[in-house]
Task: structure prediction
Amino acid sequence: MVAIIMQFSDELQFTHRDRKDIYDHIERYGTVDYEDARRALNMSPEAFGHHVAVLRRDGIVTRSDDDTLRLAFEDEREETYVEDGIEVTIRQAREDDLTGLVGAMREALSNKSYIEGETIADIVESENVLLRHNDLMKRVFFVATIHSDVVGWVHINVSELKKLEHTAELTVGVIEEYRNRGIGSRLLDCGLEWAHDHDIEKLYNSVPSTNETAIEFLESRGWETEAVRKDHYRIDDEYVDEIMMAKPLE
Result:
């Protein structure tokens, strides 16, 4: 049997309310124990097993050997290359990357120079879920790993609102030890490719004006400043402008 994997561009449709409830539960909590989910949803073993089987058949949910359930949205792009004798892999983040990803974001953003990135880290840590695909938003991460440890990320957040669904927010970062090795550029390319494949027409990213390195990096990759919000941030009791940057996609 050929496995079907749902894509982020696919519309979510459920022919039974219980299946939507199962999906919503997994989408909310990430990887969940099979039996814990069944009890939380107050379904009989027979009904729950049937609905999970249908969700698996339709490529919406996977069931692992350890009897856990997770969403099956996956992106096949994966790149492994060697730079300065170091093997780097760039791939879609999985739920079991969550702790390492948040840790990498905290380390990379410890100088408080990337507020949007910090906000994403806070949200992911509080929700304890990486993937989001619901009626309000889609969220996906790609990570750069070395020896299976997360050292960088690119995040794309897409609104499901009709008026905004052609745009997406992007953040990207690499921990200090592995900067200036091309990892950030490859992550950014990965994010751009994903956005293009999902019919995003424009990406945006906001950084404090004090983060000259990030601004120069994005400008070198074709991003432009669309607006400046004066004194938008207060960092260490100093007011700092927000530079709102964008990248049109063709």
User: Anything to note?
Assistant: The domain at 17-71 is CATH 1.10.10.10 (Arc Repressor Mutant, subunit A).
